[in-house]
Amino acid sequence: MRNLDMTALRAFVTVADTGGVTKASGYLNLTQSAVSMQLKRLEESIGVSLLDRSARKVALTNQGEQMLSYARRMLDLNDEALSRLTSKEYEGELVLGVPHDIVYPAIPQVLHRFNATFPRMKVQLVSSFTSRLRRLLERGEVHLALTTESEVDSGGETLLERSLVWVGAQEGHQWRQRPLRLAFEEMCIFRKPVQEALDRAGITWEMAVESDNTRTVEASISADLAVHACIEGAEPPYVERIRHAGALPDLPTIKINMYGGALAKTEPELALAEMVRQAFDAM
Known about the structure:
This protein has helices at residues 6-18, 21-28, 32-46, 62-86, 106-117, 130-138, 191-200, 214-222, 267-281, and strands spanning 51-52, 59-60, 92-98, 121-127, 144-149, 156-169, 180-185, 205-211, 228-231, 239-241, 253-259. It is an alpha/beta fold. α1 crosses α2 (21-28), α1 (6-18) crosses α3 (32-46) and α2 (21-28) crosses α3.
């Protein structure tokens, strides 16, 4: 009787989720060669190729897609069994604050892992602007807060630093118009640096959409009524990065910071903070 190796299955799923061996190795805390060896061992054990290695990016074969479905279910059941039988039965609720524009792709992975480890704990996700999340943290209304800022204040730690990029409608032309029409939420921290960059470049602009609703802004951008700026790698759906070839100014870098991690005391709080670190490190 043959048995599938759970460690190899976890490596396979992580590579599929992160898009490559390099990112998966950081997430799994293994070397790239170790991850590659796990993949090879899994393929040899079942006698089929799971990854299309001829593509520039990691792509699954038909058999790989089928195996991914099985692997997810097997790992979920494995983690649930271990969690319920070996971990302490913590109960309660943690509140995690995250700006809406960095929820994906890291936070769903964090919530899934935390639920598997602490099945009786609930994580309430609060999505809002950085300034509001900092206030909620100070009042003790959130346990852990992620922010998007140009710098990091005392008590915070930087998880990732990325540039702001221009985004607009798919195959849109609004970015060529002058004055340049902008769409931002009223409290968005990116508004001021974007406007200052345009002023320095001598490009006239106007606020075409001002709203406190993210969906309103995204709908306006995707309709090619205005342009926007977001953190590289966090582009909203139905828009694309603008290939302006220098027609628009470069934008500053933004830090994704975490506050509250240093104050974590209980095992669930410490685990949640570490899962967040690992998820953004994998990016």
